Amino acid sequence: MMSIRTKLSLWLTALVVLGTIVGMLLFESMLRQAFHDSIINRLEEDLEHVIMATHFHDGQISIDESQLSIFYKPAYSGRYFQLNLPHDIIRSRSLWDQTLDIDLLGKGENRVWQAKGPKNHDMQLLSVGLSSNASHQTATLTVAQDLSIGRRVFSEIYGTKLLVNLGMLAAMIAGIFLVLRQSFKPLRKMTLSLSQLRDGDITKLELNELPPEIVPLARTHNELLDYTANQIKRSRNNLGNLSHGLKTPLAVMQQQVEVLGLKDPQLAEAMQQQLDQICKMIERKLTAARITGSMLPAARMTLPEDLEGLTNTLSKVYQQKQVHCHLDLDTQVNRLPIHREDGMELLGNLLDNAYKWACSQVLISVRQTTEGVKVSILDDGPGVADHELSLLTERGIRLDESVMGHGLGLSIVKEICEQYDIRLLFCRSDKLGGLSIHLEFAQ
User: Fold this and answer.
1) Which positions ≥6 away from 404 have C-beta within 8 Å?
2) Cα–Cα distance between 204 and 270 in angstroms, integer?
3) In 3-state terms, what secondary structure has residue 171?
4) Which residue has the higher pLDDT, 132 or 403?
5) Helix count and strand count (H, E) for the chain
6) How many other C-beta atoms are found inside a 10 Å radius of the C-beta of residue 310?
């Protein structure tokens, strides 16, 4: 989908270009009309001057050119007049050897038109019909002006105006992009803030530097973060309260088992094993609640801090086995692209499985690849047969009933991997001989 910034840029640029084109067309039309009107006004003035210089004497008509402008004297000067009599033609010296093709008009008639003149140039002509009451003689007086000079001036003015408008258009388009860039700068800052929030660097969006249009969105996002944090805290407290609440009934059952041991030692031993499993599960859940206690609702897993927290916790849970965990982390990777709580659940289950089956050693490797981040968890336990690897993530299925568990941990791992599109692989470890688990996070 096209971004808002691109859409605004295109629409505003199109409007500015369209406005410039319409403005230029209107300017060209107005300038052309003004040019035409100025020519007609000048021809009307010239016509009045020529009429004033026209004399009727003894039935003869003559024009005193000494009363006229000097523009009528140079040959092909661009300013012309011609008087058409019934049997004679009087023309300006500027026409030289050229004669205008004029239609005779009656007294008081006027005509405005364009035609070709000397040097085949376009001319604007104005004619009027004249007559003498004394001699009853009629004539047609015509004044003309060459349009080539005016059109050259018109082209210069219009061309200059066109260049100025094109420069202004380019400046306005550049201004549109600059203004939109500056206007969307707070959104880029908000995007950066969201990335920092996702990574856990900040806890809330800062509202002071945001424009008023975005503040309600950011405030709502902060309220949602507070609500989510409260929900996580409430769930953690409920889990802790439940685990603590179970301790008292378990203590009572422990006493009853001790009493039962005096009567039926075998039954007491079986019940004691189940009580120990329940106590370990409660302790594990309390530890998980403590680990996730300070998590931000939108934080990502940080390396190596979160992994060290998990390994330290599991080392205490399985302290009787003396499992040594080695971290081999790529310095380029300091975060995993997964929600921190989900990441702790994912890696916590996998590491718990590794600690559970390991004899003495667990290896955690994190590498940056061209396709993303690869996390490997290896142990030196008995491993899993090749034909049973596909059963590991089936909910409720346990391949060895002799070890504590409900067979749900790896199925939860599978669900989280599907949610984040993480590739999950199980195989035998060539390095340690046990199970090798590989997680491939896409970029």
Assistant:
1) 277, 280, 281, 356
2) 52
3) helix
4) 132
5) 8, 14
6) 24
Whether the model pTM is above 0.90: no
Q: Is 410 helix (H, G, I), strand (E, B) or coil?
A: helix
For 379, phi and psi rounded to 5 degrees?
Answer: -135, 165
HSE-up (13 A, CA, CB side) for residue 371: 8
- Beta-strand ranges (E) seen in 236-331 are 300-302, 324-329
Sheet holding 89-91, edge to edge: 89-91, 79-84, 137-146, 122-132, 110-116
Q: Where do the H-state alpha helices sit in 292-402?
A: 305-317, 340-357
Phi, psi of 178 (to 5 degrees): -70, -45
* Tokens (6 digits) for 89: 């033609």
Q: What is the pLDDT of residue 404?
A: 42
Mean pLDDT for the chain? 82
Tell me how far CA of residue 265 lies from CA of 25, 240, 261, in angstroms.
107, 33, 4
C-beta of residue 352 within 8 angstroms of C-beta of residue 280: no
Is beta strand 122-132 parallel, antiparallel or unpaired with respect to 110-116? antiparallel
92 burial level (CB within 10 Å; 0-12, 13-18, 19+): buried
Residues 6+ apart with CB under 8 A from 253: 271, 275
| Inter-residue contact 377 to 354 (CB < 8 Å) | yes
Average of pLDDT values for 377-404? 63
Residue-wise pLDDT for 234-245, tens only, equals 777 777 777 777
- In terms of average pLDDT, the best of 160-164, 390-394, 404-408 is 160-164
What confidence tens digit (pLDDT) does each residue in 174-218 have? 999 999 988 888 888 888 888 777 666 777 888 887 888 888 888
Strand, helix or coil for residue 124 = strand
The letter for the amino acid at 308 is: E
Length of the chain: 443
d(CA 125, CA 118): 13
Tokens of 250: 């378990």
Contact 331, 369 (CB under 8 A): no
Q: In this structure, is the dihedral angle defined by the CA atoms of residues 251, 252, 253 and 255, taken in order, positive or negative?
A: positive
How many angstroms separate the CA atoms of 442 and 417, rounded?
11
